[in-house]
Amino acid sequence: xxxxxxxxxxxxxxxxxxxxxxxxxxxxxxxxxxxxxxxxxxxxxxxxxxxxxxxxxxxxxxxxxxxxxxxxxxxxxxxxxxxxxxxxxxxxxxxxxxxxxxxxxxxxxxxxx
Amino acid sequence: xxxxxxxxxxxxxxxxxxxxxxxxxxxxxxxxxxxxxxxxxxxxxxxxxxxxxxxxxxxxxxxxxxxxxxxxxxxxxxxxxxxxxxxxxxxxxxxxxxxxxxxxxxxxxxxxxxxx
Lengths: 113, 116
Prior knowledge:
The structure holds two protein chains of two kinds.
Chain A (H helix, E strand, L loop, with lengths): L3 E3 L2 E5 L4 E7 L5 E8 L5 E8 L4 E4 L2 E6 L4 E6 L8 E9 L8 E2 L3 E6 L1
Parallel strand pairs in A: 2-11
Antiparallel strand pairs in A: 1-3, 3-8, 4-5, 4-9, 6-7, 7-8, 9-10, 9-11
Chain B lengths: L4 E3 L2 E4 L5 E6 L6 E7 L6 E7 L2 E4 L8 E4 L6 E5 L8 E8 L10 E2 L3 E5 L1
Parallel strand pairs in B: 2-11
Antiparallel strand pairs in B: 1-3, 3-8, 4-5, 4-9, 5-6, 7-8, 9-10, 9-11
């Protein structure tokens, strides 16, 4: 079965870059997602990458995928206090057609002024 | 596009009571998912529908949990004979296949259940 691991906390200074890391286990073709959750709210989809890609950039967000090590990272450039939230990594294998995602426990990002 | 809505946002109930939650997905989305999220954890998949068909329900937590989507639009999640361990946030998400083939899931704000 799938398993997604994330470090639980990250603290950065405003204006610095943040890098949130994730490892996953599924070896089949899969979509890998990053979601953001603010207190008391649902999850907001930030970006995603397919497992045959190495990198995806979207404004301040850069996703890097190391397929060999099954390691995914999310880099947030010029981190702002509004980026403080919990960030979830999820993998969603394409086999079977259900695309049911498995989520990590989330990384709590704290941005200091 | 008003996003995914869930009702109620908060529910406090006594142990042993039944509760029902509603989810209204984004209108053109054919898939609807239910998740449970407990403190410090990521969302845990419960069940999903494609249109009105419930395609996966083996991961519902027990036979006290059931879900419906009778007309392929809104969905309800019912928990019978609630237990204190059912206290959690219940999240709904909807999706449709994107041009890239991914199912981008859009989440509602959740229903927070407290069982006393």
